[in-house]
Specification:
The complex is a heterodimer of chains A (412) and B (340). Chain A is of the alpha+beta class and 412 residues long. Chain A is 40% helix and 14% strand. Chain A has ten helices and twelve strands. In chain A, strand 5 and strand 6 form a beta hairpin. The longest helix of chain A has 30 residues. The radius of gyration of chain A is 22 Å and the shape is globular. By secondary structure, chain B is an alpha+beta fold. Chain B has a domain of 101 residues: Beta Barrel (Elongation Factor Tu (Ef-tu), domain 3), CATH 2.40.30. Chain B has a six-stranded mixed sheet. Chain B is flat. Chain B starts with 9 loop residues before the first helix and ends in a 5-residue tail after the last strand. Helix content of chain B is 21%, strand content 32%. The chains are: A alpha+beta (412), B alpha+beta (340).
């Protein structure tokens, strides 16, 4: 096949905006989206992949309690370790004062992280014995309730790690008493000190509460809810601010390129399930492959979804059902998550991309590139047609080289 | 139904009222920068708008720190330890340290972060002097406000500073070396009950309820304001050159655009978004009018006055004491910015 690259935007499309931190993304047909839209797009799309991975995980461990408990244990252990290793900079960034003793400082980390992940809302309480955070938006809300439980444990882990660098103080138990992933209007974390607010002990996975201070919950009505993080809101002067005077602009929103539900929670939990012998590596990969492929196919099962995608990419009418449409979509996603790639071929016969594998791993999750390939393979079958395929081929070291072309496969 | 997180909390109440009625003590270590050298006064005079050169050895001064736009970027207490050596007590070390670095070129000074060398306990309230005198070698009777002097507790070398963040007439800060912190804490814990004292453990009491009742600011309150807007311009030394002076002179000439005012909300079980938790704060409207006249900076609770109290950063001259306003549908009244 030809390695021809049709006339199109240069290979470094997306970098042409000249903005290093607030980059725009550009499709091969010059459809351009601003930084904010790119962040929203990638944030949601990556959680669709996370949702597929969660379904795979559910097949591997059918029992809810066992599955959620493992995920919570894994999240807690990793976040404690991560915070021990890297948390000191976060302490300074969040202006944790020396006299702030105990685990309530963990709420500062969660508050900042939420806004940077476009999970907008508000801190409602911040004290030594109680803290409360309410979210109005969470793009992770489609992944599954086990994830909501596990993210609570990541807050707990951050709190434990941070408190270890401080003068000892009260411990806190973080609970997600409402979760958008369970259908609630908000996500709501309430952290309580159990000496002051006693409650029965429970297992880690039971991190939805109840809490002792339900009568202190501040519920924001629908009409007062927000849709954007502070960094994208005029009333906030496009600046995130917390109570200890951390200020961040919208460059902080690129945290969505560093943290996804699959990379941070679901795939590590699957790895832990493999490590514990609950499932073999081969079976885990097989299930992931099957589920992600099917989920990718579901993306464009309806004709209007194909039309919408083509419109979004700006695909001209003269381009019919060929792999460039899929290629364009892959490029948009890669640009959104700041993953470098090169276009080796882009024509009506084939598209070839050489992708920086580490960029697609999203903070070191080795399984994530293959998950994307499986997902994209499914997508191309419905976005273009079943003659077309997407596969990895001849990847150089450190790269993921994918080809989008027609392919007959009697065992697909 | 939502219940006020302050009003019904007996722990917060007892800690707060111990400071107001007897004595409260707490771990209150701030970040500390030690700065010294032949040009130290010259540099500090340039960095801070208030007069630094006339601080006597053994005395302290509160001052804002401004950027070139005249906006407050930190508020600190400067303690003169020797003719050419000062401590700067801050809660925003990363900013302040960078600020000194960027502006110190050409000045013969040395500075370092000594936060890890010293801890500090606050002992505040009407019986604080009695309590401190009961443990120190030399009575602190003669110690003036915003003065410090070395002392001893047993064989422990300490520095006693008279001052605090509570508005109490008598309040002391005891500095000790880090390796003696546990020992000092135990002494305070054992001594306080004899003076009907109590340990303050709640951040919200230390940083919010006690200072607000006294009209003090926590740094977040001051963000993107200038000293004239928040009433901290009284001690500015206009005769000297300092960062932000040019911008501030224009504010002086034209008048400030904003001002910080106090407010109360009589209804108990209400919640109003305020900047103390981050974010923009709730918008404030005058009864019956549509124009936004300010944003809520802080809303806590006065245990002395038994009312929700706080600050609003408002457009200048839009809100006057006694005005009735609506904040998120709740009736509120504008007050002086002090409750004790």
């Amino acid at each position: 096949m030809s390695k021809k690259i049709d006339e199109r935007l240069p290979q470094n499309s997306g970098k042409g905006s000249g903005l290093k931190e607030y980059y725009a993304i550009k499709s091969p047909w010059e459809k351009m989206y601003c930084y904010r839209d790119a962040m929203h797009y990638s944030n949601r799309f990556e959680q669709v992949i996370g949702a597929a991975c969660m379904q795979a995980y559910r097949i591997m461990i059918p029992d809810y309690r066992e599955r959620a408990q493992l995920m919570c244990e894994d999240a807690l252990a990793r976040l404690v370790a991560t915070n021990r290793m890297y948390g000191e900079n976060g302490d300074d960034m969040n202006n944790m004062h020396p006299f702030m003793c105990g685990q309530f400082v963990g709420a500062l980390i969660g508050d900042q992280g939420d806004d940077a992940l476009l999970m907008c809302g508000r801190c409602q309480d911040f004290g030594t014995y109680r803290a409360e955070k309410e979210l109005d938006v969470c793009d992770w809300d489609i992944v599954g309730s086990e994830l909501c439980r596990a993210t609570t444990m990541s807050l707990q882990g951050s709190a434990i790690g941070s408190a270890e660098r401080r003068r000892p103080g009260p411990s806190m138990e973080y609970c997600m008493v409402e979760a958008k992933g369970c259908g609630d209007r908000h996500c709501r974390i309430v952290a309580e000190n159990r000496d002051k607010y006693p409650m029965p002990e429970h297992e880690l996975w039971e991190s939805f509460g109840p809490v002792a201070t339900a009568d202190q919950i501040k519920y924001t009505e629908e009409e007062d809810c927000v849709k954007e993080s502070m960094v994208f809101r005029e009333e906030c002067n496009y600046t995130f601010t917390n109570g200890t005077h951390l200020e961040q602009d919208s460059s902080s929103a690129n945290m969505v390129t560093l943290s996804t539900s699959a990379s941070l929670y679901v795939l590590p939990a699957i790895n832990e399930a493999v490590r514990r012998g609950i499932v073999t590596r081969e079976m885990a990969d097989h299930i992931l492959h099957c589920v992600c492929e099917a989920a990718g196919k579901a993306m464009f099962g309806e004709r209007y979804a194909i039309k919408a995608a083509r419109d979004w990419l700006g695909v001209p009418p003269e381009i019919g059902e060929d792999g460039r449409v899929m290629g364009g979509l892959v490029e948009m996603q890669l640009q959104s998550i700041l993953c470098n790639y090169e276009v080796e071929a882009f024509n009506e016969k084939e598209c070839i991309y050489v992708i920086d594998r580490s960029g697609l791993e999203i903070t070191g999750c080795k399984e994530l590139p293959q998950v994307h390939v499986d997902f994209w393979y499914g997508m191309v079958k419905t976005l273009v047609n079943a003659q077309w395929s997407l596969w990895e081929e001849d990847s150089p070291a450190g790269k993921l080289r994918i080809r989008i072309a027609k392919k007959i496969d009697k065992f697909c | 139904m939502y219940k006020n997180i302050f009003k019904y909390d007996e722990m917060k109440r007892s800690e707060h009222m111990a400071v107001r009625q007897t004595v409260g003590w707490y771990y209150w270590t701030h970040q500390l920068i030690e700065i010294s050298g032949p040009d130290v006064v010259k540099l500090l005079e340039y960095l801070y708008p208030n007069d630094i050169g006339n601080i006597k050895v053994g005395r302290d001064r509160y001052t804002t720190m401004l950027n070139e736009n005249g906006e407050i970027i930190d508020d600190v207490v400067i303690m003169r330890m020797a003719e050419d050596r000062f401590w700067i007590s801050t809660l925003f070390l990363t900013y302040t340290d960078d600020w000194i670095y960027y502006h110190s070129e050409g000045y013969d000074v040395d500075w370092s972060d000594i936060t890890d060398e010293w801890d500090m306990f606050a002992v505040q309230g009407p019986r604080s002097k009695e309590m401190v005198n009961s443990i120190v070698e030399n009575p602190v009777d003669g110690l003036k406000f915003f003065s410090h002097e070395p002392n001893k507790i047993g064989d422990m070398e300490v520095l006693i500073n008279r001052g605090g963040f509570t508005g109490e007439k008598f309040g002391y800060e005891i500095y000790c070396r880090k390796d003696r912190t546990d020992e000092l804490e135990k002494i305070l814990k054992d001594t306080a009950p004899g003076f009907e004292g109590k340990q303050v453990t709640e951040f919200q009491v230390m940083a919010w309820t006690l200072p607000t009742e006294s009209g003090f600011y926590y740094m977040r309150d001051l963000a993107h304001t200038n000293p004239m807007e928040v009433g901290l311009d009284g001690n500015i030394d206009w005769e000297k050159d300092f960062i932000g002076k040019e911008a501030l002179l224009k504010v002086k000439e034209n008048g400030p655009e904003k001002e910080m005012v106090g407010f109360e909300v009589p209804e108990a079980d209400i919640y109003i978004r305020s900047k103390q938790y981050g974010g923009p704060g709730e918008a404030v409207y005058i009864d019956g009018e549509e124009e936004e006249v300010g944003r809520v900076s802080k809303m806590v609770y006065s245990y002395v006055k038994e009312v929700n109290n706080g600050y609003i950063l408002a457009k200048k001259d839009k809100l006057n004491v006694g005005d009735h306003i609506k904040i998120h549908g709740y009736d509120a009244v504008i007050t002086e910015k002090k409750w004790i």
